[in-house]
Amino acid sequence: MLRSVLLFLLATFVQSMVDHEESEIILTAHGYSMDDVENRVVIPIQDGRIPPLPCVMANAGTHQHGETFTKNNFHYQCKNGTAEVVACIADDQSVIQLGRTFVRNGMKHKCNVVGDSVTYEQEAMCFDNGIHYSIGDTFRNGSFRLTCGQNGIIIEGCYLQNSGEYLMAGESRIVGRQRHECEVLGDGRVRYQVKVIGCMREGQHYNIAQVFTDKHVRYQCMNDGSLDVLGE
């Protein structure tokens, strides 16, 4: 699973106004010269009154006061010469309101307001048992401790039987007469198993190397948990 993050900052569009004998106002897009005829608008002044100003944005054209428009992942409204972000727009044209988070098709979309700027973020998520998880989230599924990574779900470790404690993948631990193993099998697979230390026969536990007699037969407990028959 690929993770993509898009970050866009709201640029403050500065109005450049020039007064030519009090007869006109010239508005230019932020960063452009007043001589750039494609990114400016000239507003005549009548009777000394300044009308509501339009917004001039590079590569987005000119928009009248009160008009809304979209550029890249932002939806704007023109307010007397200033283009204000009113929402974020996802790549599938979904609308995310300011300050909200929106999840669709395994992707999380965030429209954050930070001071005078707005950021839009798009982040891949993990999905398991009907729940979405953000990258970095850790959660439990059965005996396994899982983490949502940039490329999907990672098996981080195994939970001990009937416990909230866990082993990291590849780790083992002896608890009482049991060995708990979180074994890495390859190809990203992990197996959790519990092994009795020593040998069991007829419900009786025997230590490794211990010799005992059962029904006139002598046994010895081997390292692998098997019983070696020594004879009668």
From TrEMBL:
Keywords: Signal. Residues 1-16 form the signal peptide. The keyword Signal applies. This is Abnormal cell migration protein 18-like fibronectin type I domain-containing protein. Pfam families: Fn1_2. It comes from the Eukaryota. The keyword Signal applies. Residues 55-118, 126-189 form the Abnormal cell migration protein 18-like fibronectin type I domain.
